[in-house]
Structures are given as C-alpha cells and as structure tokens.
Amino acid sequence: MRTILTCAALALALGSAPAFAQSGEITIWSWNIAASSLKATIEGFNKQFPDIKVTVQDLGNNPTYDKSIAGCAAGGEGLPDIVTIENGEAENYWSQFPDCFVDLHTLGYTAEDQAKFPDFKRTELEVEDKAYAMPWDSGPVAMYYRRDFYEKAGVDPASIKTWDDFIAAGKKIQEANPGVKMTNADFNGDSEFFRMIANEQGCAYFAADGQSITVNQPACVASMTKIKEMNDAGIITSADWSTKITNNTAGTVATQMYGGWYEGTIRTESPDGSGKWGVYLMPSLTADGPRAANLGGSSLAITSVSNNKEAAYAYLKYSLATNEGQIAMLKGFGLVPSLISALEDPYVSEGQPYWGGQAVWKDILGTLPKVVPSRGTPFQSDAEIIVRAVQTKYLGGGYPDAKAALDDAASQIASATGLPVEE
Predict the structure, then answer these.
(1) Contact 358/351 with Cβ under 8 angstroms?
(2) Is the pLDDT of residue 26 over 50?
(3) Rounded Cα–Cα distance for residues 325 and 162 (Å)
(4) How far is CA 382 from CA 18, 141, 386, in A?
(5) Rounded alpha-carbon distances, angstroms, from residue 297 to 31, 209, 224, 320, 379
(6) Confidence bin at 419 (pLDDT 50/70/90)
(7) What is the DSSP code (8-state) at residue 371?
(8) What is d(CA 115, CA 122) in angstroms, rounded to the nearest whole number?
(9) Which is more confident, 136 or 87?
(10) Helix (H) or strand (E) holding 277
C-alpha cells in the first residue's frame, strides 16, 4: 500500500521540495566507492522517510555509463529512477537525449538550491534554464604518499614544490626502497596524469565555452612534456585502476595522484596501511605555480521514466543537499562534498587516524576555490580516445616533441567534432 508524506514533514526536511513525496521504491545505478557511499546515506534518509525504500546497484563505472546511454537511446527502457553521471560525461547525455532525464526545477529545485553548489560543478549539468542533475562529489587533486618510504629516503614532502622536485625525490625514494616505484599512471587506458596537470596549469581539451579546441595550447604542451620527462626518468609504472589498488596494498608504490575521492579507496581497500599514508599538494611546473586541479566528480540525475520522481528527488535533496548526507559519505568513504556548507563541518578539520592524524580533508578541500573549471563538452569521449592514442605514441617516441603530438591530437579532434582549433 502506498502512503503519502505530509506537507509539513517535507517542508521541514527538504525546504523547497515539492508538496508530496510518494512512498515506494527507488533504484539507483552507481559504482565502486560511490555506490557504497550512497548506501551509507540510506539509514539517515529513512529516519526522515521510512516509507521510501532505496536500492543502490553497483554496476561498475563503464557499465553504468554504457547501460544508461543505451537506455536513453531506447526511450528510457530498463533505466532505474536515479543514475550516477560523471561531470565530464554529462553533456554526452543532454546533447543526445535531452528528454531522458527530468528537469529538477519541475520538482522544486530553486535558484537558492543551485547556489549551494560551486559554479564549476554546475556548468555541465545545466543547459539554458534546465537543470538535469544535482552536483554530488568533487575531485580536488592530492598526492597520497607512503610516509615510511619517503622517510627512509630522507625526503620531506613539503620540499616537493615542482614536478622536477618530484622526479628527483622519486629517484631517491626508489633507490632507498627496492621494489617500490614513485608513482603509477594508467598510460594504456587513460589520460589522467595529463588532464590533472593540464587542469592545474589552466588548460583543457576545449575552451571554457566549449566552442573551440585548446588541447595544443602552451600550458597543455608544457604539461605533456613534463609527463614524458617523468616517464623517461623511470619513476612511473603504467598501472590501471585495479593494479594501483594492488600496488597500494602490496606496498610497491610510494605515491598516487588522484582526486579527493581516492582517499576512501586507499582507506577501505588497503586497511593495513593505516598510519602509513599521508597527503600533500600536487607539485607545479614552477616553484610559485598553481597547485590545484580537479579530477572527476559526479552528479545524480532522475530519469524521465521513473515512477517515483518525487521520492527520488527527496533522496537527492537529503543525500546531496544536506550536510548530514554529504558528511556521512565523506566519513565513510571519502566522497568529497560539493555542497559548500558541508566544507565548514567540524569533521573536515579533524585529524584522521588512518592518515597518521593528519587533517587530510582540510588540506585537500582547501584547494577547491583555486580549481580552474574544465569543460567536458559533448565531445569529451571523442577527444579522450584521441588523446590517449597520441599520448601512447608520444611516450613511445613517436613524435619529435609534445607540441607535435598535441597538434596532431587537436587536428584529429577537429576532424571528429567539426570544432575549430584555437589559434
């Protein structure tokens, strides 16, 4: 039997939510730590909404994208109530299937609600006057390092200001710790290192307005050049996601560079590393250069075929737009809040036992205001495939320099998208 929550209860819990949130069941597609984080919010949500049953399905990252895109192409067939969408891929959905997801404004999402999230998180989720998804987590980049490996080599992470410093430190750390590599990068299946360093330097595949290609601009060239220098120095081993986790647990890597959400991956996947890990800011190309970037970050969108849209929206409001929901995910699994008010929660300034008592969230989240927005555009997937192939060829000596490599990438992206290369 379906019951109805009272207007008063909803007004108290959700503020600007619609008048009624139906009971019933809602299903969410997500992956990995993100799925676990959503599950962690259900208990708190059900204290306010006991008649809404939430089921989170962990499909894996790529399957979530593939199945949701296929479902949109099929007119919504087989889709759940809520889909997790990475910001960098968001515009792939809206540009191809603008009717696949609900405009959250129709469910009570106001300008006041939107203002609770930073602009760089909303850029790819909103088209003209429509809001297709609500921001979830951010990915402020940090260097996660093994304190013991650095100490054995006499390396103080505070002394690593530049990527050249990082290379020099890597050589010392590898010499002092046989069998340990300074860092890992998924050169075979991703352009993650390039995207992080390029974002730090203010460069991306596309211009901020999404109307031109900028992957061969000087800051991107400098970023790709430095990556090859690191690779040629022998301080990087190519490793995919699973292999990195294996290396973390086995103690065969000294540093991982990733978004803030990776804190939860290390802590939950490598529990025996408690007390051994620490965090420091990513290096820059120059000693006084920028040291902030963003990698990843997701949102939640409600499908147009959902039979429980109001209940789904009630869940979005609780999990993403309340400090309680966001901090529950941060505490349990390291999902970094996008909700501005959550960053002021006392928990953010607390020392974390796993990280040797370091207040890692204060350090990591302190970089968020300095992150340069990076637009994904509907062509992100096309560009990513091209850049990965060019990167592989460049690292293998297939281009005379990074400028030639990225000029080739820009030309290929232009052919694939029809967009001009910015002069």
Answers:
(1) yes
(2) yes
(3) 37
(4) 38, 24, 7
(5) 13, 20, 23, 13, 18
(6) very high
(7) P
(8) 9
(9) 136
(10) strand 277-280
